[in-house]
Amino acid sequence: MKILALESSAVAASAALCEDETLIAQAFQNSGLTHSQTLLPMVEHLLQGCSLTPADLDLIAVAAGPGSFTGLRIGVATAKGLAWAAQRPCAGCSTLESMAWNLAGFSGQVCAAMDARRHQIYNARFQVDGQCPRRLTPDRAISLDDLVQELAGTQTPQLVVGDGAQLCYDALTAAGIPAVLAPPNLRMQSAWGVARQALALAQAGQTLSPAQLVPVYHRLSQAERERLEREQAAQTPHPQ
C-alpha cells in the first residue's frame, strides 16, 4: 500500500511517502515559512522524485489533530484536495498517536505532549511493546498539574515526546516521577509516524472519504473562546 502522509500540526512541516512499512522518501522543513508555502511544494517534490502522481497512491494521510489550528487546517485541506482529485481515501491520524508510532520500536510507556498554551498541553499516554503503541488515555487537553497528579506514585519511566516534551519532562521530574526525553531525532512530530498510524487504520478498515476528513481540535479556538466570553459578559446582569 502506497501512502502519502502529511504533518503540519506544529511549527515544522513534513511529508513522507511509504509503501507499507517501508519509507521511500521524506521531506522536513522548519524554516519559519508558513505551511501554506512549504507543504504542497514538498509533496510535489517527493512525488516527482519518485516518478509518481497522486493517482498512483493508495491512501493519503494527515495529522488531523490536536495541534495548531491554522496548521491543522492547512494539512487537512491539502490532504482533502489531493484525495478528491485522485479519488483516493484518506486517513485522519491523531498527532499524538503518530508521535508514539515514531517510538514503536521501544518498549515502555510513551507520554506524548504538545504545548497547547493557556497553561495546558495536548497529551496522550501509550504503552509500546517494540512493535506498536497501545492507548492508555484518549487525546486530551490537560494541565501539567493534572498530568502530574495522574502519574503520582508511578515508578514506570515515561518516555516523553513532542514539542511540549521539555515542559512535560520538567514538570514530571520536579514531582519525582521518572521521565526520559525521547532522542532529539525522534522527539518531534513527523510524517513518518503519521504514515505508520495510517497503515494501521487502513488495515483496520478505518479510512475516510475526503468529505469525512476534518480537523480534530480538542478545544475551542481563541476566536471562539473570545466570542463566548463576550456573549456571556453581555448576558450578565450589571448592578444598578
Brief overview:
One of its GO terms (biological process) is tRNA threonylcarbamoyladenosine modification. The chain has 8 helices and 11 strands.
Give an overview of the whole structure:
By secondary structure, the protein is of the alpha/beta class. The chain folds into two domains: 2-94 and 189-219, Nucleotidyltransferase, domain 5 (2-Layer Sandwich), CATH 3.30.420.40; 97-187, Nucleotidyltransferase, domain 5 (2-Layer Sandwich). It is 38% helix and 28% strand. The strands form two sheets. Strands 6, 7, 8, 9, 10 and 11 form a six-stranded mixed sheet that branches. Helix 1 packs parallel to helix 2, helix 3 crosses helix 7 (191-203) and helix 4 crosses helix 5 (165-174). The protein is globular, with a radius of gyration of 19 Å. The protein starts with a strand and ends in a 5-residue tail after the last helix. The mean pLDDT is 92.
State which percent range the strand residues make up. 25-35%
Radius of gyration: 19 Å
CATH superfamily caption of the largest domain: ATPase, nucleotide binding domain
Total helices: the number is 8
Query: Based on DSSP secondary structure assignment, what is the total number of beta strands?
Result: 11
Q: Which oligomerization state do the chains in this entry correspond to?
A: single chain
Mean pLDDT over the residues: 92
CATH class of the largest domain: Alpha Beta
CATH architecture of the largest domain: 2-Layer Sandwich
Query: Level of helix content?
Result: 25-40%
Q: In this structure, how is the largest beta sheet organized?
A: 6 strands, mixed
Given the helix and strand composition, which structural class is it?
alpha/beta
Low-confidence stretches: none
Number of domains: 2
InterPro entries: ATPase_NBD, Gcp-like_dom, T6A_TsaB
GO molecular function: transferase activity
GO biological process, one term: tRNA threonylcarbamoyladenosine modification
Keywords: Transferase
